[in-house]
Specification:
The protein is 38% helix and 21% strand. It is of the alpha/beta class. It has 2 domains: 6-267, Rossmann fold, CATH 3.40.50; 285-447, Nucleotide cyclase, GGDEF domain (Alpha-Beta Plaits). It has an 8-stranded mixed beta sheet with strand order 1-2-4-3-5-6-7-8, sandwiched between helices. It has a 7-stranded mixed beta sheet with strand order 10-11-9-12-15-17-16. Strands 13-14 form a two-stranded antiparallel ribbon. Helix 8 crosses helix 9 (171-184).
Length: 449
């Protein structure tokens, strides 16, 4: 059931609909411009799960901006300032003197503007796939190709937003979100709102943001460029950049748990991992098609068949699922993303070789106690990216190195060892290996630390 709806009133006479759930420190979630309908969103399981996860142990506030959802639809202006005014009305109505602020995508610039105008009110700023310059974002080829369709075929555009831009794949869920997009506003207001974002530019304001900021970004998605995240992280005085797995611009699609963990960690004043995330990400992980050098990792649970036989199917699956959670958590903190889980192992891709090696070392240390032991294989090169999966010789090599590794061992290719030169990692000679499916001997190295 949708939480009770309240209304705030802006200084220019607009009614803004909002709800709140939970208790504790307040986290205000700005609308995911321009698609916002706080009542219909609650009926979509993925979105409801997102809000419920964010609302654990805190008070979550969510509202519809003017022109959308349950807020006033008949509006005169849609600008950066009107977005700031909508937020100001809601927090004033609720009497929030201090609060944390979450803003995704188009809402990022208004959030930065609010944080600079009311520096004593925002404690933490969280930006997801956001940007500082609307002009720079407008240059995205996907944006240029899709926006004109709004005026040509509104229904087709809503399907396009749902399936191409956001990445909904299940037919029933995709149709539910397409309906939300159609019902949340009119094509005329949607076109005006999106056109207004081109004028958003808070680049000069970034250095004036006085609160800690978390810049979350999914390099694999195609809607918001990696350069946007770089600009935000470089311009904000106290910013942490966190690269997340997933191909959707919507945080509630893909690996939502990883994003929620990162937010919880940030708001709790701790880092999920001690390893710093490298800001410079190769084009291979920016969502562009084609090639690009990256580091490929396979993990494998040792003796998984014996584990099933000894403890049973249910207990074994719980143990392997715990391993998957460790893999996800440790990879995200080190420029990595999980491509897929394979039952008793995982395939991952890393933006930096150092991140992949640090991940492998941390995984072995984490799994040194109870639970299945793991082995890891790492190679580097140009994988073939197709339908969200990785293929090619670099993937085969990582898989075969994993097969050759012993329990608690990490085997890497010679290319990986060379890329890690001077990064503080130590290797020992693991010999020349004849690996299945590879027509020449491979020099392998064992990660020592």
């Amino acid at each position: 059931m949708t939480p009770p709806i309240g209304y705030a009133h802006t200084s220019d006479g607009v009614d803004i609909a909002f709800w709140s759930i939970g208790d504790g420190p307040a986290l205000v979630a700005m609308p995911g411009l321009p698609w916002s309908h706080i009542q219909m969103e609650w009926s979509i399981p993925a979105m409801r799960a997102w809000y419920e996860a964010l609302g654990r142990e805190r008070r979550l506030v969510r509202y519809d901006g003017r022109g959308f959802g349950l807020s006033t639809r008949d509006i005169d202006e849609l600008t950066l300032d009107t977005n700031v005014a909508d937020l100001a009305a809601v927090v004033d109505e609720m009497g929030l003197e201090r609060f944390d602020l979450y803003a995704g995508f188009h809402s990022g610039a208004p959030a930065v503007a609010y944080a600079t105008r009311f520096p004593d009110r925002v404690e933490h700023l969280i930006l997801f796939c956001a940007y500082a310059s609307g002009t720079a974002h407008r240059a995205n080829p996907l944006t240029q190709a899709t926006r004109p369709i709004i005026a040509q075929d509104w229904e087709f555009y809503t399907q396009l937003v749902t399936r191409l831009l956001l990445g909904w794949s299940e037919p029933e869920a995709a149709e539910a979100f397409s309906t939300l997009v159609r019902e949340c506003t009119t094509p005329e207001v949607a076109a005006r709102a999106l056109a207004a974002t081109t004028e958003f530019d808070v680049t000069s304001l970034l250095t004036s943001v006085g609160c800690p900021a978390l810049v979350l970004h999914r390099p694999e998605q195609r809607v918001s460029a990696m350069d946007n995240a770089r600009a935000l992280a470089a311009g904000l005085p106290d910013a942490r950049l966190s690269l997340q797995p997933g191909a959707s611009i919507a945080p509630f699609l893909g690996n939502m748990r990883a994003i929620v963990r990162e937010i919880d960690s940030f708001l709790g004043g701790t880092r999920p991992e001690e390893v710093e995330v490298d800001v410079e990400v190769p084009d291979a992980l920016t969502g562009s098609a084609g090639s690009g050098i990256s580091t490929v990792v396979f993990t494998d649970a040792v003796a998984s068949t014996e584990l099933v036989e000894s403890v049973g199917d249910d207990a074994a699956r719980r143990a392997l699922r715990a391993l998957e959670r460790d893999v996800e958590r440790l990879a995200v903190a080190r420029t990595g993303r999980v491509i897929k889980h394979l039952g008793d192992g995982s395939l991952l891709e890393f933006a930096s070789t150092s991140g992949a090696l640090a991940f492998a070392a941390a995984l072995l240390e984490t799994r040194s106690g109870d639970g299945p032991q793991v082995r890891v294989g790492i190679s580097a090169g140009e994988p073939i990216r197709e339908d969200g999966d990785l293929h090619g010789s670099v993937v085969v090599l990582a898989s075969r190195l994993t097969d050759s590794a012993g329990p608690g061992e990490v085997l890497v290719s010679d290319v990986v060892r060379q890329l890690a030169h001077g990064k503080g990692f130590e290797f020992s000679d693991a010999g020349t290996l004849d690996l299945k499916g590879i027509d020449h001997p491979i020099q392998a190295w064992r990660l020592s630390r």
